[in-house]
Design goal:
This protein is an alpha+beta fold. The chain is built from one helix and four strands.
Length: 113
């Protein structure tokens, strides 16, 4: 005895395909957003480390108490560094636009010996 089950197979395929599509439409945007946030955190960590090094070398090499600002490119991002003397500390700030085109700013303080 052979029974025709073509309708049941097509229904199973449509159900499994719709479940697969719902999962993919849910996960793909989440994965893309995670990738963007990961890139933002990498930039922030990289610029903070660079600002730390620049602030330390600037305060050790600078004999004046004048505020200084310089623009540079770090990993294809334009970053503005500013160094301000706030007795007895040096304040260094970095300002840049992230991947979402939002302005970010990080400030660090350095106490020279």
């Amino acid at each position: 005895m052979k029974h025709k089950q073509q309708g049941f197979v097509i229904t199973e395929l449509l159900a499994s395909f719709s479940i697969l599509m719902m999962i993919s439409f849910t996960l793909v945007p989440i994965i893309l957003q995670l990738s963007i946030e990961q890139n933002i955190l990498f930039q922030k960590r990289d610029i903070q480390s660079f600002l730390h090094d620049e602030l330390q070398s600037f305060s050790e090499n600078s004999n004046s108490s004048q505020d200084t600002q310089k623009d540079l490119v770090r990993n294809n991002k334009e970053v503005t560094l500013s160094f301000i003397k706030e007795d007895p500390l040096w304040k260094g700030c970095a300002i840049w636009n992230n991947v979402k085109n939002q302005t970010e700013e990080i400030c660090l303080y350095y106490y020279p010996d």
